[in-house]
């Protein structure tokens, strides 16, 4: 179910799922009822929806389009078309500490989950989907900026499993274009051709934004317990998660 999971402060957890959680995406030709059932099972495994806790009983997912739009989320609802979401921090209808649980889906792209300390003991949560276009267009720095708009300080980030710089082959021209924007992405495959190291690029962006990276995941293409689009093309999506709980 969980590839990696950690309670990063009391009542706040971050995690990345594995293939044991199954495909969590609605856009890859899978049965929507089965996807919904898997999402519900995952929410229960994370401890959401139990007891009388005030937080909504499921993760908010989004309709990801490889852009750099950051959607503010104040309650569970229809998925926004965006590649990042931020919740918490600001007062919401009397529940000043409420922060909607968030999910980002990937299969080789870089999933990033972030936690910051908000005002008056609140917590600011965020997720970002950083594929090649998102890294080049700065979706992760935009996410950090929106967290700070919500009052977040001492922001920490966890960079989940994604295709690594030794596996992600691209044309030389594309490597040059992306590396001109984010120098840390410049890489070479293990067989000697042009490549991009997207997780290295994300770590570079986070460090430049004064965010501490506390975990960086392994390679999706090299681990059969993770979904990889480059390996299988017709494949599911796993998720990066951040949530508050009892
Ligand atoms: Zn690799």
Question: Quick summary of this structure?
Answer:
This protein has six helices and twelve strands. By secondary structure, the chain is an alpha+beta fold.
Note the main attributes of this structure:
single chain, 246 residues, alpha+beta, CNF1/YfiH-like putative cysteine hydrolases, four-stranded antiparallel sheet, 12 strands, 28% strand, globular, binds zinc ion
Description:
- The chain has helices at about 30-45, 130-135, 140-150, 170-180, 200-210, 230; strands spanning about 1-10, 10-15, 70-75, 85-90, 100-105, 110-115, 125-130, 155-160, 185-190, 195, 210-215, 240-245.
- It is α+β, with helices and mostly antiparallel strands.
- The chain has one domain (about 1-245): CNF1/YfiH-like putative cysteine hydrolases (4-Layer Sandwich), CATH 3.60.140.10.
- The model has no long low-confidence stretch (mean pLDDT about 95).
- The structure holds zinc ion (ZN).
- Zinc ion binds near residues 167, 219 and 221.
Q: Secondary structure elements and their pairing?
A:
Blueprint: E1 2-9, E2 12-17, H1 32-45, E3 70-73, E4 84-88, E5 102-106, E6 110-117, E7 123-130, H2 132-137, H3 139-149, E8 153-159, H4 172-181, E9 186-188, E10 194-196, H5 198-208, E11 212-216, H6 229-232, E12 238-244
The site of zinc ion has 6 residues, from loops.
């Amino acid at each position: 179910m969980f590839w990696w999971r950690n309670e990063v402060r009391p009542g706040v957890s971050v995690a990345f799922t594995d293939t044991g959680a199954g495909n969590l995406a609605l856009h890859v030709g899978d049965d929507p009822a089965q996807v919904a059932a898997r999402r519900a099972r995952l929410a229960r495994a994370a401890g959401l929806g139990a007891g009388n806790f005030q937080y909504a009983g499921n993760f908010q997912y989004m309709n990801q389009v490889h852009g750099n739009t950051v959607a503010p989320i104040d309650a569970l609802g229809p998925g926004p078309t965006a590649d990042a979401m931020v919740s918490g921090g600001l007062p919401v209808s009397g529940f000043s500490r409420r922060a909607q649980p968030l999910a980002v889906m990937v299969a080789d792209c870089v999933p990033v989950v972030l936690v910051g300390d908000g005002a008056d003991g609140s917590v600011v949560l965020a997720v970002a989907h950083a594929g090649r276009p998102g890294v080049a267009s700065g979706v992760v720095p935009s996410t950090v900026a929106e967290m700070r708009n919500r009052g977040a300080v001492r922001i920490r980030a966890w960079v989940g499993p994604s295709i690594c710089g030794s596996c992600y082959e691209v044309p030389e021209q594309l490597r040059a274009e992306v590396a001109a924007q984010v120098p840390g992405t410049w890489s070479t495959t293990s067989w000697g051709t042009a490549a991009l190291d997207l997780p290295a690029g994300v770590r570079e962006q986070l460090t430049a934004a004064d965010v501490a990276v506390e975990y960086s995941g392994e390679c999706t293409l090299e681990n059969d317990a993770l979904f990889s689009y480059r390996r299988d093309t017709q494949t599911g999506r796993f998720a990066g998660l951040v949530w508050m709980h009892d």
